[in-house]
Write a structure and sequence with these properties.
8-stranded mixed beta sheet, 4-stranded mixed beta sheet, single chain
Length: 536
């Protein structure tokens, strides 16, 4: 990720300010304001799927492991952990003194049994959790789910109050990442049973072990003053793991500007696409490259499924020409992984250099084109265009690639700019020849990102080979081994020329100049506020 500042010179002074009394302002004790578009549907971590719910859950629950501002793993509720040499046993030591808190006055200490209970819920068929399949690698999980074994046979055990052990059926390189996700959050059995089926549906039925607890949750679809407020759990804010904001206020609205004008309150942070960013002034922002954008082909157009034609188009698309011609939030790409994609807690793009990616020699482009033209009806490719969503209308790369094709191949390809709605509709109906396609994933893992390319790899045998590499990477116990397999999978996608990478697209976390230290996930637009400092 890359931090960029767009402040006036006076605002570039150090963020460590002095109070009127001459004491240093450490940024703690403030009230932070942010926006969510929709009312959270359900704050039960084993059930929630909507982005608003996931944003709240990130702050009111604490799992064993969390991601830092760079996407690396760090201990959270766990103070330490060990992994067996075969990758099948994970043992976690919990921090003592973490409290459960609720607006109803319920209080208890977090123990290993709370994690055991959450995983038993996950594999109870009655729960109907959408996340069950993601954790089926836990020992005996499938048999427990099918009712062959009891819940006590699940490979999640509390060895004592503060020691938790997971046993797996086979190694899973992304297991630590999965422990950062909502379904791996703990659940207090006593409180859960007391809610009688209403767990997570309003503040009275939420109990929190994270940095914050819910204090108010007001929502009426016919009213415009909807909000959710979290307040700091003092017991969980220690000198070693301090929670800086006193409160975090989520304004539930799809019109941030209208709220600021009507209320007089500034929104301290929000997230934007590259096209939205130029409208803003006097703010800080951090850039998170999280999507790969490239040319994809309609599988029903036989002329474009010709391997020689696709190879020629890829070879004639000289990415070097585009360097320095990219716009805000857009960077030319030689590979597929943007820098926010991670392999075992490290940036995939830093682990796998783009200089190692397959290169199509431009000298071979015309030969491949002529060979392909001889194998198809040439009239089929006389009128072809790239369908482009309006959000990329100003990206110079789109037009430079068609110029390159014209110069190298003598192929005149049009560019058709359409609205986002029309783009989506035509992509689904197959009413296009080629499309400039943005590919991203539901999370930051390399496996999820690579699988997002499945709809564009039209040869089943080729995709099976890619999937084999992904599966081998997922079962790797060593980082170097996982990197090797993910590199091979990325190379296969590029060399097959079903997808021609053009550039990476970013999301931007935008925040007021007197705030800092947000932890943002660009794949689901969620923010951790625990470490956010707000200076007066």
């Amino acid at each position: 990720m890359k931090k960029i500042t767009r402040l006036a010179a006076a605002a570039l002074l150090p963020m460590l300010l002095l109070t009127a009394c001459g004491e240093e302002d450490d940024g703690s004790g403030g009230s932070v304001y942010t926006v969510i578009k929709d009312n959270p549907a359900n704050l039960d971590p084993q059930m929630a799927q909507d982005s608003s719910s996931l944003s709240i859950i990130k702050n009111i629950f604490e799992g064993l492991i969390e991601l830092d501002e760079n996407g690396a793993y760090r201990c959270a509720a766990a103070e330490s952990y060990t992994i067996s040499e075969d990758g099948l046993t994970y043992t976690f030591k919990l921090r003592k003194g973490i409290k459960w808190s609720s607006p109803t006055g319920f209080s208890d200490e977090l123990t290993a049994e709370d994690f055991v209970y959450s995983f038993r819920r996950l594999f109870a068929p009655a729960t109907l959790s959408p996340y069950t399949e993601s954790f089926m690698f836990i020992k005996n999980a499938e048999k427990v789910y099918d009712g062959i074994l009891s819940a006590t046979d699940l490979g999640v055990k509390a060895e004592d109050e503060y020691t938790l052990t997971f046993k797996l059926e086979y190694p899973v390189s992304d297991f630590l990442y999965l422990l950062t996700t909502p379904p791996a959050m703990p659940c207090n059995e006593e409180f859960f049973l007391s809610t009688e089926g209403r767990y997570g549906l309003d503040e009275r039925f939420c109990v929190c072990n994270g940095a914050f607890m819910l204090s108010e949750w007001n929502y009426d679809p016919y009213w415009n003053e909807n909000f959710l407020t979290m307040k700091r759990i003092s017991d969980n804010s220690t000198s070693e793991r301090m929670t800086y904001p006193k409160t975090v206020n989520y304004i539930i609205t799809d019109n941030k500007e209208e709220y600021e004008n009507d209320s007089g309150n500034d929104i301290d942070c929000n997230f934007y696409s590259p096209s939205e960013l130029p409208k803003l002034r006097n703010v800080d922002y951090t850039e998170y490259p999280c999507a790969s954008v490239g040319i994809t082909f309609n599988p029903d157009k036989e002329e474009l499924m010709n391997p020689s034609i696709r190879y020629a188009l890829a070879a004639a698309a000289d990415i070097d020409v585009y360097e320095g011609e990219t716009s805000l939030g857009i960077k030319s790409a030689y590979g597929i992984f943007p820098s926010s994609v991670m392999i075992m807690g490290k940036s995939a793009r830093e682990l796998i250099s783009e200089s190692s990616k397959p290169v199509f020699p431009e000298t071979e482009a015309l030969k491949a084109w002529e060979r392909g033209i001889s194998e198809i009806d040439p009239t089929q490719i006389e009128i072809v265009s790239i369908m482009v969503s309006e959000k990329f209308a100003d990206a110079p790369i789109v037009y430079m690639i068609t110029d390159s094709w014209s110069d190298v191949l003598g192929f005149d390809c049009g560019v058709e700019i359409v609205s986002a709605g029309e783009y989506s509709d035509r992509l689904k109906s197959g009413d296009y020849e080629m499309a400039l396609t943005a590919v991203t994933a539901e999370n930051c893992t390399a496996s999820a990102f690579l699988r997002s390319f499945r709809p564009y790899i039209h040869d089943k045998a080729e995709y099976r080979e890619i999937e084999n590499y992904i599966e081998q990477a997922e079962c790797s116990t060593q980082l170097s081994e996982a990197v090797k397999y993910y590199n091979e999978a990325e190379n296969l996608i590029i060399s097959g020329a079903y997808y021609i990478p053009m550039f990476y697209e970013s999301r931007f976390l935008v925040y007021e100049e007197n705030t800092e230290d947000y932890v943002y996930d660009p794949f689901n637009d969620s923010v951790s506020f625990k470490n956010v400092k707000k200076y007066e």
